[in-house]
Amino acid sequence: MLFPTVLAPLPTPFDAGLLPDSARLVNLGRRLADRGVGLVPFGTTGEGPSLSFHEKRSLLDAMAKAELTGPSTIVGAGSCVADEVVALSHHAIRLGCGGVLLLPPFYFKGVTEDGLFAFFARAIDRILAAPQGERLRVYLYNFPRQSGVAVTASLVTRLARAYPAIIAGIKDSSGDLDTLLAVGRACPDVALLTGQARLLPALNQAVGARAGCISGYANLVDPTDAAGTDHIRAALAGRPATVAIKAALAILEDDPAWAIVRPPLAELDETAVAAIRTALRV
Q1: Which listed residue (139, 171, 217, 246) is catalytic?
Q2: Residues 170-196: pLDDT tens digits?
Q3: What angle do CA 58, 63, 65 make, to 5 degrees?
Q4: What's the whole-model pTM score?
Q5: Which of 57, 94, 107, 119 sees the fewest Cβ atoms within 10 Å?
């Protein structure tokens, strides 16, 4: 892989008016990049589905100005609207990002593999036809518990065979190691990124340098240090992941604004925050 083994899905900071705060995002991105961590804005932890295309583009521009849109940045560009996938992917390419992370279109359920293939293929074809389109690298995002639509090993394999070198990897947040390994066997050039750092050793053993993780814990600690993350896992267990990570970041940064989330998400109550503070030993 051309990017770090560990990437952080950046939380999106908001101000009191629930508008994105580019300065806080850039400051966090710089700190993580200085630690050698890759960056993934606008994913699940970044509340990507709650951000408009224009907000994402503006935040990405701020990251580019801070020189945070290089090969180690993969942009969450998934949307149910193909035009938005194409437009944000184009912008990420122009800014020098290493790839885009694409959720399946997630509103309609029970769709066929052929339908999902057609959606991705249409978007990819349009991106490839644009200037610099050949630089496109796609990382498919499988998180069926959240999206309600699975990105199967069969679908990844079909797309990888149709678009060799363009389908660069899969990020799996289902915790299903078998799905990742099935992709690895069928697609020897595709990177396998897990959302659970605990699976990284098994992935490393199976596919070597193609293994990596995109872990929300990377915003707080090194997620590959099992001993060092035990107290973080205990603190956040049983709470909505995005909300809990932002609450923990607010505590560690001594900056309450980091805890702000956009509806329909809601901030943790004082009792939960106190429990996290105690577990973090802050």
Answers
A1: 171
A2: 999 999 899 899 999 999 999 999 999
A3: 95
A4: 0.95
A5: 107
